[in-house]
Amino acid sequence: MTGDPRAVGGDAEVIGRFLEMLSAEAGAARNTLLAYGTDLRGASTLLDGRLAEAGEGDVQRLADAWADLSPATAARKASALRRFFAFLAEEGLRGDDPSAALPRPGASRPLPKTLDHDEIGRLFATAEAAVQNPGGYQALRLLALLELLYGSGLRATELVSLPRRAFRGGQPFLILRGKGGRERLVPLSERARAAVAEWSKLVPEEQPWLFPSGKSHLSRVRLYQLIRALGAAAGIAPDRISPHVLRHAFATHLLEGGADLRALQSMLGHADIATTQIYTHVDGSRLVELVNRHHPLVDAGRRRP
User: What is the pTM of this model?
Assistant: First the structure.
């Protein structure tokens, strides 16, 4: 099951992106990255380089191939594939998740991390205070990045690779083009528009990227570093914050405020609403409160003598 990276074909790039994300966002140890890389390349080799587009039947083939392995090894390989397919869905690289065919360990999947309103407030206060300092070029960029992550729920890859032309001052939305040429509208709050407008004044007109860096655009890894440094300055532990956590906070707080799940699916760019339902958890106590407040049978019960 080791697999030869040269045999992975079209999977090689996306596996590399996944491992980069694990390193930058999750802070995965080197041994974990090596194990996941080996497992994913091995699975890709078994599927003739079609792991990224595997269906449930293909995934079942992998599970069958692992049948004679120890439970711990099979669980590790299944975990690697689950995280890989979740990454593909989150990045908009596929609209489904075939990992249901994988063997499941007994432990339940933890809910994604998020931040509460007070922590978000501290992040913005810290970022806004930095802009007031002399020579606040980098601080202005960080504030624009923060506004787009939490204010519009962009994926890290989408954010760093935004073309400069994607933002137009009088336009209250961004038009993003995803896999297969699919376009989606991403709303921009007035705050986000103001922050990005200020930042874009400092970006040369001939620049192709909204957030340039060197000969290309800002990297995902650098974005993770900037957000974690901001979190540390705001008193938030590094393992509790990342661009993905801010995207999840965007979705969670909108849902808590009464946003429609279908509208949220569109804003997040999820092809399948099941992805949105998993990604946007709601506190169980709030669900009970919603039922008690708004279900028609509650009023009927109150009217009974």
Answer: 0.64
